[in-house]
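task queued by scheduler; priority normal; single chain, no ligands, no partner chains; default sampling; output format set to C-alpha cells
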Amino acid sequence: MKKYELLAASALALIYAVPANAQTADPSPAAQDSQASDTSDDIIVTATKREQTLQDVPISVSVTGAETVERAQIRDLIDLQSVVPSLKVAQFNAVGQTNFIIRGFGNGNGNDGIEASVGVFIDGVYRTRTAAALDDLPEIERVEVLRGPQSTLFGKNVSAGAISIVTKRPSFDWGGKAEISVGNYSLMQTRATVTGPLTDTIAFRLSGSVNEREGYFKNLTTGSDVNNRNRWSVRGDILFEPSSDFSVRIIGDYNLIKERCCGVSSILNGPATQFIGAPRPFGLGAPISDTTRVFDRNVIFNTDPKNRLVGKGVSGQIDWNVGFAKLTSITAYRDQVNQSQQDIDFTGADISNNTTANHIQTFTQELRLASNGDGPLSWLIGGFYQDEKVDTGRDIRYGNDIRAYADGLSGQVPAALLGALPPPLRNAIAGRSNIFALEFLQSLVTPSIVPGRTYFQPGQGISDRYKLKQRSYSLFGQVDFEITDRLTVTGGLAYLNDRKKAQSFVTLQDPFSSLNLLAIPQFPPIGLPGNLYGALGALQFFYGTNSPNHGPVNYPNANEDGILTGDKFTYAGRLAYDFGVVNAYVSYSTGWKAGAYNLSSDSRPPNNIGIGRTADPEEVTVYEAGLKAKFRGGYFNLAVFKQEIKGFQSNAFTGLGYSLVNAGKESVRGFEVDAAYNPAPFLSLTGAVTYLDPKYDSFTGAACVNYDTARCPLNPLTGTRPSLRDLTGDAPAGIPKWSFSTSATLSHDLADGINAYIRGEYDYTSKTQLTETTPPEIGTWGTNNVNASIGVTFVNAKLEVMGWARNLTNNNSLIATFPTVAQDGSYSGYPNQPRTYGMTFRKSF
C-alpha cells in the first residue's frame, strides 16, 4: 500500500493546498468540453493523420472527449465500449487476454501468434498485443475509434479498424490535476498530473495513477476475492519546441498490474463435472459451482489465479514544418511481460493447473510527410517498420486428484472384457477402472508400465515453448483533390510486407496422450485387439486418437521451415461532397492482416485436418456511404456499409488449446448512427446505434463441438468427434444485431461560479450467441447497462465533486462462454461486473 499512500497524499495535497487564485492555466477540461459541445466544428480528429473536424473527415469515426471519460468513470478501453456501441471489448480468463472488436470483426486474444485485427495506437505508437493496451487511460485529449480497414494510413493490423488515443501534450503554462475516487469493493483510485515549463522551449508533463479495489468474486475454496484491481502507472512527457515549425516530444511510461483474475462461473455441469462433485465413492467429493447461482459471483478454485503484467516503453516524435510539407517521425520501443497462473478446471478438485508467460519486445518506426497549404491538392506519404521478438509458453500440470478423476471417467472394466480373459487376469482387474486395466495388461509385456502409477500422475502434462521473430514494413500514401469547392476525391494506396520466423519447443509429459489407442503394441502379443481401448480417446487431453501424431512435432523440421511471409497492396477511394448543412461521402477500401502462427498445444503439422499450424492472411473489403449533418447545437452522422473478410482467422478455444483455421468468407452489412444535440443550454443529448447483419458466406473448417451432434457425431470406437464442421450460412457468434448507447446531461448554475450536473447513460446490445463452441440455449446473452453520475463544479476553485455508478441497475449478463477445460459436456462463462459506485474529488490548477 505504500505506493497508494504516497500518491494519495500527493493528490490530497494538490486538491486542498493549491490556491485557486494563483493559477494561470487554461480553462478546465470540463469548461473546454462544454464549449466544444456547442458546435460540432470544434471536435477535432486526426483520423486521416492530419487535423480535421469530425464533420469534415469522410470516414466513420467516433470521438470520445476528456469530459465524457471523466464523468462516465471510464478507466480503460474495456469501459470505453459503453459509449461506443460499434466497439466491443471482452476480458477472458486472464488480465492480458482481451479482445477488441469493431463491426463484429476482431480476434487475437489468448494466442500470442495471432495479432489483433483492431490496432490500438497511443500517441501514434502501435501497441502490438492487446495486453499492451490495458493500462489505465492517461490524461487524454480524446479517443478516436475508426471503423473499417485503415491500412492505407496506419502501418499495421488495422484490417477491422483502429483505436487511436491522443493524450494531452505538455503545456508551457503551469497547471495540473489531481483526483481521488473511493467506492464499493474498497475502491481507492488516485490520479495526478502536473505540467509546466522547464525553460522557454522545454515543457514537461508528469502523470501517475494507482488503481486498487477488492474483487467482486469470492473464491469459496480459499476465501480470497477474485477480479480485484491492483495496478499503478507513471508517465513522463517532455516537449521541446524551439519554434512553431519544429518540436520533439519524448514519452516514457511504466505500468504494473498484479491481480487475481479472472472469475469464471459454471453455466452447465456435464457428467464429468458432476462426477467431480459427487460424494465418494461415487465421485471425488470436491466442491463444484452451483449453476443456478451464476451471478452470486462465487468461484470454486483450489488455488487463486494470479496475474502479473509489466509494460514499459519510450517513444519520440519529431514534427518539422519544412515549408511545403510537415515531416513527422515516431520512434518507439516497448517491452511487455505477461505472467499468469490459473486453476483451469475451475473446481475445488486439484485436477489441472496452468502457468503461462510471455515476453514481447517491439521496435517501431513511422515516418510520414504531409503537405501544407490550402490549394486543391493535398497529399500524405509515409512508411512504417516493426521489429518484434516474442517468447511465450505455458505449463499445464496435472494435480493430485487427476488419477481418481481419470479412473472415474474411464469407468470400470466391462463384464464382456472380463469374460474374455483367463481367470488370473480377470481377477487382477475385476472391479478396477479401465485405466488401471490398460496399465495392467500393458505391464504383462512392458514391465516399466506400473498399474496405478504410470498414467495420470501429478506433475504430468505438457510444456509449450515458442519463439517468434517478426519483421513488418509498409509504405502508404493518400491524395485529396478538390475538384470543386464542394467535391473532393480521395485515393489511398499502401504496400504491406510481413515476415514471421517461429520455433516451437513443445514437450509432452503425459504418457497417456502419447498412446495410439487404436494400435496399442502390447495387446496383440497377449491375444487382445490393438484398438481395445480406442474409446478412451476422449481422455487424451492433448494429442488424441484423431491426430496422426500422438505427440508434438516441433518446427523447424525437414518439412516445415518455420517461416511465414506475405505481402499485399491495399487501397482506398472516396468521393465527398459538401452540401452545406450535410456532407456526404461514398468509399471503397481494402485491408489486410498478415498470416499467423498457432502458438498453442493445438498447433499441428499440415497433415492434420482441421487444426492449423498457421493461418493465411485476412483480406477485407468495405463499401461504405455516409452522411454528416451539422446544425446549431449538434450533429447527426450516418454510415451504411457492407464489409467482407476473406480468410478470417478463426481462433476458437476448444478446451485446452486453440483451433486456428481460416474461414472462407465472412461478411456483415449494417449501419451506424452517431448524434449529439443541445436543445437548450442546460441539456446535452447523445445517441449512437449500430446494426449488424453478419453471415458466414463460407466456413467449412470450423472446430467441432460437443453439442452439435448432427455435424459432429461421436465415434463410439474412439470416443472422439470429427475435427471439422461446416458453418456456411450460419450467423457468426459474438456479433449482436443491435447495439445502442445514449446519454443525457442536465446542468444548472446553483450560484455564481457553482455548477451542478446530472448525467445518465444507457448501453444496450441485443441477445446473441456469444461463441460457436457453446450451445446457444445457455450461451446467448445481451446487455442492458445504466451508468449515472451527479456532480458539482466550483468553477473559481476549479474543484469538482462527483458521485457515480456503473451498472446502476445491477444488470446481469455473461461476457463470454467456453467449453470447460477437460470436462466434456460442461460449459463455463465470465459474468459481467456488478454494480459499482463511488465518489470522485477532482482538483484542477
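post-processing summary
- The longest strand covers residues 658-680.
- The longest helix spans residues 2-17.
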